[in-house]
């Protein structure tokens, strides 16, 4: 039962030249890998002494030779940047990443859909840190492409079972009481390929429809109050986007009044066009499709609308052929991002193993990590603050002895729910679904240090 | 004593065409302002009913005309983006802001220094939301310009009073146990012009040497432990940058062991070149100059180094002519960012007034706001989570009656310290200093709605 079966499908983009893993993951370029594998291991040596004193090995980093040390050649030969005058301030009124980070991009999985305007681009989780997703790398999922809408022309209508329907301009919205909150967003189809044993090779493609931002906007409850919604009979709201797909989603009134926002900002600045500029719905804990982008209409009603986007799409096909509908909440889940599929561990010894955990039902309380495919578990360190319906970064020390290993993480949220194994999930949900796969992810580390996606039952 | 004196100096960049305030601040373009002032006030009307029922006036937003409403022309005439196919995913592997946000930039204050490579660019606080500063808008302060250093060639040396001096590569550092934490960074000279009554016109120039990020890196204590630092005699560390200015700063060992980090990431991605790529020191609560960028050396010693950057610069000139030295901690401070200098309030009625508070000594516990130049104070709503040495966003409801008003915010931190008035600060520190001005900021709202920088004694 605990025997791993490798079912790795190598996808074309991952074999592209230039997609090598480098510094952000703590791993090196293909040239450096080759250098290491041919024997020049001196720049990455042994275990991290302070944290792994029990393991034999030299310390990380190059030790200097005491007081008579004259310095490494790199240090004695002063580089140009230590002698010259650098670039001026405001050379870039709006900055961009280093030239050495150009490979760090969101990427489409070719062939996933027939039209790139109705597709997905995945966030490079293997090279991200902490919990904030930089806006330039936030994942994308569009149904009919993205637009850069003129905010001075955009309107939001609130209507239906309300005393006073209204049309809001951006200026109307932005003078209202606002809130700022950090939340994750995950597409309901994230990790969907794993249902069918199609183990895509990297965490960018297995889990990359996941991002996390600080959002600023007005609570939807403020707008509903402003329009005098029917408190007795108004049981649901419909949110509609202004793009060509006319995305429409039902949300229950209790959620709408709880923490749903009409947001104009992400991570301190106005939303990006791909993420719904100038306004989108933020529906914490719900799957991404409910976070309607380019939001133009809110309707209050007394029953769900059963729109195309909640009957034909985003339904869970169960083993008996019935569709599970309105299954919007993203259950507790986690994944190790470093090391992860497609990366190579260059040497034995100490490594910081890190990943992300989240739950659509609230706070993450614990993350356990296994290095032997689920036989033994150790509890990881969780970063603070602890925020509901927000990513939580975990870290754990690992001393790799060079033997094959299978790494897994298992999250537990404040409701006590424990992230399931894939076979536990399949026992209930079958294997023909696309959506809502929150199973434990397994990464196999081979003796060569190569990391790949496997399924462990 | 409470009479305001206007001492506004209009700086050239603020008069530039194109620097008008628009949607991000909840205010409009110059054309829209002209339209409003010539009588077309119908798109922004009256008070926000839900929050200001006591004030006469219609609701914000355009009310619809009941069930027979056929829609506004803007809504009935479907725009192209509701009919057509939009842009594909990953059209921009690394995204950028909307074309409608192009004016939102960090800006240099011309003439502030003689060389733009040794100058400042200010963050546009008037148009930022929440607490996270997007990396593209993080303020800059360089002493000899910025560089984009190749991380594979960069090294960090730890030396001095340690058992084993070492040289770390980026890969050495990034496999160590890491932490991710949100902290503000403020230049010690932020708000420096206000010492001399030179009230620069906008919050971008008064307070824009302030930013806040989630940083990821290794605690400096981990590196010092790894090198076996002298716990008995090692009382200070020196941090040195790799740029041409050879920036060097002393930090006491207790702080170094507390929460100082060697960071490689900001807001989820690798540092930007302007902010120290590939590594910088993160010294929570200390002035920005101590957050040494392009960090290349840490030395352990038994006394402060008294380097040029802590004797000639970054010292506080006191009234008796003596310099106050090693005054590194950024004291408790706050500022209202909307409305703020250079903006125009277009109409009476409800407005969300918002700003930022921070303290180098810990958490922000309360922010009070005055609308009458400090006679009366009301307590603002603070956003969560409450994090030490991190920005905290505050919001407060305000119904503007059209009369002149003076807006102020006053922060209180967990030590009980209360942000001082400018005359209280001057009584101790004089007015010839450049650094560490944390006085209460006053914004005057004229009957026209124009907001300007004033000093209130």
UniProtKB/TrEMBL annotation, chains A, B:
GO molecular function terms attached to this record: heme binding; molybdenum ion binding; molybdopterin cofactor binding; sulfite oxidase activity
Domain of life: Bacteria
Pfam families xref list: Mo-co_dimer, Oxidored_molyb
Protein name listed in UniProt: Sulfur dehydrogenase subunit SoxC
GO biological process: sulfur compound metabolic process
InterPro entries noted in UniProt: Ig_E-set, MoCF_OxRdtse_dimer, Mopterin_OxRdtase_euk, OxRdtase_Mopterin-bd_dom, OxRdtase_Mopterin-bd_sf, Sulfite_DH_SoxC
Originating species: Usitatibacter rugosus
Domain Moybdenum cofactor oxidoreductase dimerisation per the UniProt entry, residue ranges: 332-441
Cofactor(s) required for function per UniProt: Mo-molybdopterin
Keyword annotations: Metal-binding, Molybdenum, Oxidoreductase
Domain Oxidoreductase molybdopterin-binding stretches: 147-305
């Amino acid at each position: 039962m605990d025997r791993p079966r490798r079912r790795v499908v190598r996808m074309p983009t991952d074999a592209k030249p230039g997609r090598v893993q480098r510094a952000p993951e703590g791993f090196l370029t293909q040239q450096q890998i080759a250098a290491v594998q041919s024997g020049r291991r001196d720049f990455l040596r042994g275990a991290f002494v302070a944290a792994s004193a029990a393991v034999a090995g030299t310390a990380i980093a190059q030790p200097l030779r005491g007081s008579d040390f004259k310095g490494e050649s790199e240090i004695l030969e002063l580089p140009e940047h230590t002698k010259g005058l650098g670039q001026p301030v405001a050379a870039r009124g709006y900055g961009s990443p280093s030239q050495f980070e150009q490979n760090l991009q969101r990427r489409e999985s070719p062939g996933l859909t027939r039209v790139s305007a109705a597709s997905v681009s995945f966030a490079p989780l293997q090279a991200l840190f902490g919990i904030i997703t930089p806006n330039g790398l936030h994942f994308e999922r569009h149904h009919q492409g993205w637009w850069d809408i003129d905010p001075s022309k955009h309107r939001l209508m609130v209507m239906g079972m309300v005393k006073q329907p209204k049309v809001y301009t951006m200026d109307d919205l932005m003078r209202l009481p606002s809130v700022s909150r950090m939340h994750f967003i995950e597409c309901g189809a994230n990790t969907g390929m794993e249902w069918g044993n199609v183990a895509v090779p990297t965490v960018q493609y297995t889990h990359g429809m996941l991002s996390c931002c600080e959002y600023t906007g007005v609570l939807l409850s403020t707008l509903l109050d402003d329009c005098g919604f029917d408190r007795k009979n108004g049981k649901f709201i419909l949110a509609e986007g202004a793009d060509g797909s006319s995305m429409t989603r039902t949300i229950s009134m209790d959620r709408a009044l709880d923490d749903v926002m009409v947001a104009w900002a992400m991570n301190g600045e106005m939303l990006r066009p791909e993420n719904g500029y100038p306004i989108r719905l933020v529906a914490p804990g719900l799957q991404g499709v409910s976070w309607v982008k380019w939001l133009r209409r809110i309707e209050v009603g007394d029953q769900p609308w059963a729109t195309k986007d909640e009957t034909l799409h985003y339904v869970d096909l169960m083993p008996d052929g019935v569709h599970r509908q309105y299954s919007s909440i993203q259950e507790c889940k986690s994944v190790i991002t470093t090391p992860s599929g497609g990366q190579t561990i260059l040497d034995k010894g100490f490594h910081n193993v890190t990943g992300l955990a989240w739950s659509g039902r609230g706070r993450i309380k614990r993350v356990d990590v296994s290095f032997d495919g689920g036989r033994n578990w150790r509890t990881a360190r969780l970063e603070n603050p602890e925020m509901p319906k927000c990513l939580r970064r975990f870290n754990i020390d690992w001393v790799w002895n060079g033997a094959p290993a299978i790494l897994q993480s298992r999250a537990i949220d404040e409701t006590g729910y424990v992230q399931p194994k894939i076979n536990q999930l399949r026992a209930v949900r079958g294997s023909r679904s696309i959506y809502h796969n929150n199973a434990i992810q397994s990464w196999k580390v081979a003796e060569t240090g190569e990391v790949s996606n496997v399924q462990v039952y």
